[in-house]
Amino acid sequence: MTPGREVVAGVREALPVAVGVAVYGAVWGALAVQVGLSLGAVVLMCLVVSAGASQFAAVPMLAAESAPWTIAATTFLVNLRHALMAASLAPRLRHVPMRWLAFLAHGINDESFALTTARYVGRPISAAYFVGSVLTMYGGFYLGAITGAIAGTRLPNPYRFGLDFTFPAVFLALVVPQLRDRWGWSIAGVAVPLALLGAWLLPGKWYIILAALGASALGAAMRRDRG
């Protein structure tokens, strides 16, 4: 398949997920302006941070007027999972010229990572497909965030309508189709209790890193055993 067709495939397969991304992007945009961010600040945060989970974590901290360093530290911690994703993708992107890797690294997001790894199981990843997926996901989030920011001052708290559930719902929709064998179920069976235990025992967002590291370690061990 040519690179152009790979890009189109990435866009096409990402579109259904991008609809959900746009919804929780709108929720974030509405919440952001309600705590005092301007439309320009909303756009800038989307472009610079480019991570929905971290942006959601930052909003209540901004509302509480937390110190800038604590906001930066928290969002950095939440974004550490991207380093694990990059480490997983790197061996399968060795064919990509080095000058493009920084661009691809900035584009890593949970949804595109899940779609790409599910499509290219056990084989080199198409950078063109990944780019198509990334552009679609970011486009959905940016469009949603800007729409939510514009309408946010006129809307009641979106949490009242349960719209915040779109965030975990999108991830559930991505994870469930990948639970196809004992390997996938075993890794999920470790990640879930570790995340719950970490959320109970650890401060902040450390439970994300705990679950990611635990599941990654099990996945690496099982892959080694499978030969």
- The shape is globular
Mind describing the biggest β-sheet? none
The class by helix and strand makeup works out as: mainly alpha
Summed up, the domain count is 2
Strand element count: 0
Mean pLDDT: 81
How large is the radius of gyration? Answer: 18 Å
Span between termini: 30 Å
- Number of discrete helical segments: 11
Helix percent band: over 70%
Tell me the fraction of residues in β-strands, as a range.
under 5%
Give the H and E element order: HHHHHHHHHHH
Unreliable residue stretches: none
Description:
This protein is mostly helical. It folds into 2 domains: 3-178, no CATH class; 180-227. The protein is built from 11 helices and no strands. The chain has helices spanning 3-34, 39-48, 52-63, 68-79, 81-89, 98-106, 110-119, 127-152, 166-175, 182-201, 206-226. Helix 1 packs antiparallel against helix 7, helix 2 (39-48) runs antiparallel to helix 8 (127-152) and helix 3 packs antiparallel against helix 4 (68-79). The radius of gyration is 18 Å and the shape is globular.
